[in-house]
Amino acid sequence: MKKIVLGCIADDFTGATDLANNLVRAGMRVVQAMGVPEQPLDTDADAVVVALKSRTLPVDDAIAQSLDALRWLQAQGAQQIYFKYCSTFDSTAQGNIGPVAEALMEALAADFTIATPAFPDNQRTVFKGHLFVGDVLLNESGMQNHPLTPMMDANLVRVLQAQCRRKVGLIDYKVVAQGEAAIRARIDELRAQGVGLAIVDAVSNDDLLRLGPALKGMPLVTAGSGVAIGLPANFGIAPSSTASALPPAAGLQAVISGSCSLATNRQVAAFVQAGRPALGIDALQIAAGVDVAQQALAWAGPLLSQGPVLIYSTADPAAIKSVQGQLGVEEAGALVERTLAAIARGLVALGVRQLVVAGGETSGACVQALGITQMKIGPQIDPGVPWCHAQTDAAPGGGLHLTLKSGNFGADDFFGKAFAMLT
Ligand code: ADP
Fold first, then answer.
1. Residue 57 β-bridge partners
2. What per-residue confidence (pLDDT) applies to 360?
3. 222 alpha-carbon distance from chain centroid
4. Quick one: DSSP state of residue 119?
5. pTM value?
């Protein structure tokens, strides 16, 4: 059986890719699984990231899914478990970060773990236990208005304590600055005080790299994706280009965009301005019963041999509001997601083997429609967004190269840049 060293459980889909990307850059060969796999891992990898959608589930469901993931990862040989959550510590007063962390601790018979969402590359830093997003505290960053997980307090010791039965402590920046021995001494001290979980300060990648060695042998680590940069070295793994190697790319190229985020709007405009063929689809037409997917595929068919095409529902906020006003927010979203997923399937049936998908929810719908359950993580295109490769019956033979771009990630020329990288 193929054995992994690091087993990761991510509480959402694009967060899983973000973590996988950091591990690959630090030298690990990584597979991302959509949900808990039913079969043992059948490829060589150093780490698997199991992507759950557990961030806002009821606490008991989040725990049950996380424990399922844990059991599967242990069966694949994982020596250390990494519970990955958002770098803005997205959670409610009930959880799910604290309860899931404690359930994993119990299952692993671990009496201590760390917790830090620090991700300095992405402007998330933790200082004296307080989380900063850019220059402002978490609760002034806009996250105080999040519809599902409003973050009203930047003091993570307090936030996590409210979710935990065990005592929560702090490993502050002065300790982290002194490196492994000091961090280990502080952990021993906290343990002696009966502390089970400690928030760790980190304001730079150097802090995270100093923290890494102190986590060697800790059964459970809980963090955003930042801590990942310091872990592969503990397993004797160093950065190398082979970690991100994917099979050679072939086949036709296409972009599907269902994201309406600012960055995606710019990326769609840049693709159109570059003179590439692009087709917008209209949610109202879908609602009126027009077979928009069939029309889009008929449009794309003759163009694909000449280079990448783009099919998008991306629109500006005013247009979206108007459509949502007529169809309802959820209905509009679901109609568009279903149609784009059908188009993704149709494009792959037409021979597309290099697919860019923009939008987190859109990616979920497309991946599901394509029957993809596992992806090997490849080289980074832009921060947080790597190329991936998946085997699926929908793309017989060499499988499919795909990249799943969450809304606000990527430079303006992301689409063109992505294909240029594969060729
Ligand atoms: P992001 O990562 O930018 O948040 P998502 O794909 O997660 O992108 O979310 C975008 C949501 O907006 C999806 O549910 C999608 O179906 C919906 N959507 C996309 N285009 C339109 C549109 N033109 N009208 C209404 N809803 C849309």
1. none
2. 86
3. 15
4. B
5. 0.91
Q: What is 6-240's CATH number, 3.10.180.10, 3.40.50.10840, 3.30.70.560, 3.40.50.2300?
A: 3.40.50.10840
**Euclidean distance between CA atoms 193 and 111, whole angstroms:** 12
Instruction: Name which residue leads in pLDDT, 2 or 74.
Output: 74
350-384 pLDDT tens trace: 999 999 999 988 998 999 999 999 999 999 999 88
We find that the CATH architecture of domain 246-422 is: 3-Layer(aba) Sandwich (3.40)
Confidence of residue 406 (pLDDT cuts 50, 70, 90): confident
Residue 261 Cβ inside 6 Å of ligand 1? The answer reads yes
Whose CA is closest to atom 26 on ligand 1? 333
Ligand 1: distance of its center to the CA of 348 in Å? 21
Q: Is the beta carbon of 46 within 6 A of some atom in ligand 1? A: no
Q: 55: which 2 tokens?
A: 């961030």
Rounded-to-integer distance, Cα 235 and Cα 82, Å: 14
**How sure is the predictor about 1, in pLDDT bands with cuts at 50, 70 and 90?**
low
Nearest CA to ligand 1 atom 17: 333
